[in-house]
Amino acid sequence: MNILAHIGRATLALLEETGRVAIFLKDALLQGLTPKIFLRQILEQMMRIGYFSLPVVGLTAFFTGGALALQIYLGSSRFNAESLVASIVALGITRELGPVLAGLMVAGRVGASIAAELGTMRVTEQIDALVTLATNPFKYLVGPRIIAAVVTLPILVGIADIIGIMGGYIVGTRSIGLNGYAYIRNTADFLEIDDVTSGLIKAAVFGFIIAVMGCYHGFNSKGGAQGVGRATTNAVVSSAILILAANFALTSLLFAD
Amino acid sequence: MAEAGYIELAGVTKSFGPKHVLNGVTLSVPKGHSLVVIGGSGTGKSVMLKCILGLLHPDSGSIRIAGEEAVGLRGSARDEYLARFGMLFQGAALFDSLSVWENVAFGLIQGRHMARSRARDIAIEKLGQVGLTPDVGNLYPAELSGGMQKRVGLARAIAADPEIIFFDEPTTGLDPIMADVINNLIVDCVKRLGATTVSITHDMASARKIADDIAMIFKGEIVWQGPAKTIDTSGNPYVDQFIHGRAEGPIQMDVLKP
To answer: Which of A53, A59, A207, A242 is most buried by its number of CB atoms within 10 A?
Structure first.
């Protein structure tokens, strides 16, 4: 009896939340991404979301590339297939780990800050104040963040791909002792343009998820400092889960062609 | 009512889930008048203002500004509607990422597409009207005291010369002297613009100073409305209890007795 009530309540809450997100998404797309466009805001957000995430994403990619090289060497040396290290590192980084790890790092860094900033603006009535100054908050706040995230995440991942492969190269040549020339040869021969673009498409989708979830939770936060804290947590957790789910969906989809 | 008011609310209701916040608010403000709505916390004062501004959508009823129905406006009609309003928020609600002059000029630059340099001149002028020197314009809201933030909020509310200004608890959280300074500024600014204003407050000193008319809201309904001078002789038990600040009377607070 009690268990059923709990399940019922949880299901209703989930459906309600999904509906709210859907309505927010509709407003974000129809109001936020249609003229008028706030160019200053877009550029500012591109700096904050893209440029300032470079160190975090770069370091993540570098160490991941290095660790990947070590692991693959460990596995492939059992079959005397050490020459595969370079190609599998490149494939793993560009198709999977680059976009997913960059997405998760940016979700933690940027998703949280978007939710905290907009959440504070909500509870201090700054978002209402925008409306009274004849400025649509979806156009001024939400649109620029979505555009900036969708544009900069693929750029970030492109850079992460290069740094990750470089991390693999450094570990491969220095600590495993692979031939540097052969490593680069293998990477260049094996890597196809589709591998890179599929990762960049994923990155754009992840950027969209991060910005929308950050804005959604920020916009709907209430109840002072605690509410803003909750919004921040929810923004990070929901975008991380959605990124991983979308990654699976996109991988199946991109494999299908 | 013989003459239709500039702002007319008729039977406005608003509920949040099972909670009925507004139970048919009917209110009329003549052009150029200053109406102060008094009432305790949680009686629906703020919700009423947000309904007029369209920040919340009333469940039923009609809101007319200059005879024009406001409920359900969308798109550019809504933008034009909002351009008539200025609002001073309770916590000033200044944008903390922008400097003071950019805050004041925000509605001019973003809402009316005015050139930045011209908007800046107007912002400095409006800051002068609320008693702030031009150099304050380059500071950020976080660097200002509460009273100064309120004054900047007032300058921002009047920057675009609105026809209608709302004041949400303009004196809450200020010391009595600063509260009186704000009251004087409100009276001055409103007179200069000839604007129609609605203020909500529970500060009676402020209400007496800025009001032409006073309305009392209780449980989402207007229980009394009349000229400010007659507030002490209203004969209304709700009003009497409120202006004298008595715990005993028809208004009962839900307080658990120990």
So the answer is: A207
pLDDT tens across A88-103, in order? 999 999 999 999 999 9
How many domains are contained in chain A?
1
* Chain A interface mutation, best of B74, B106, B165, highest count of A Cβ atoms under 10 Å: B106
- Chain A and chain B share a number of CB contacts under 8 A equal to 52
- Structure tokens belonging to residue A195: 């591998």
* Span of B35-49, B63-77, B137-151 with lowest mean pLDDT: B63-77
Condensed to tens digits (0 to 9), the pLDDT of residues A141-171 reads 999 999 999 999 999 999 999 999 999 999 9
Residue to substitute from A30, A120, A133, interface B, most B β-carbons within 10 A: A133
Per-position DSSP letters for B121-165, written without gaps between them: HHHHHHHHHTT--GGGGGS-GGGS-HHHHHHHHHHHHHTT--SEE
Partner-chain contact A129 B91, CB within 8 Å: no
Look up residue A179 and give its two tokens. Answer: 């031939």
Of B53, B91, B95, the CB nearest to A132: B53
How far apart (Å, rounded) are the C-alpha atoms in residues B97 and A121? 10
Of residues A38, A125, A134, nearest to B91 (C-beta): A125
Range of the domain at A40: 2-254
**Which residues are within 8 A (CB) of A249 and not within 5 positions of it... i.e. 6 or more apart?**
none
> Min CA distance, A42 vs chain B (Å)?
15
Of A113, A128, A120, A140, nearest to A222 by C-alpha is A120
CB–CB contact A125 B85 (8 Å): no
pTM: 0.89
User: Using N-to-C axis directions, what is the helix angle for A143-171 and A98-106, rounded to 10°?
Assistant: 130
pLDDT lower than 50: segments of chain A = none
- Cα separation, A188 vs A180, in Å, equals 12
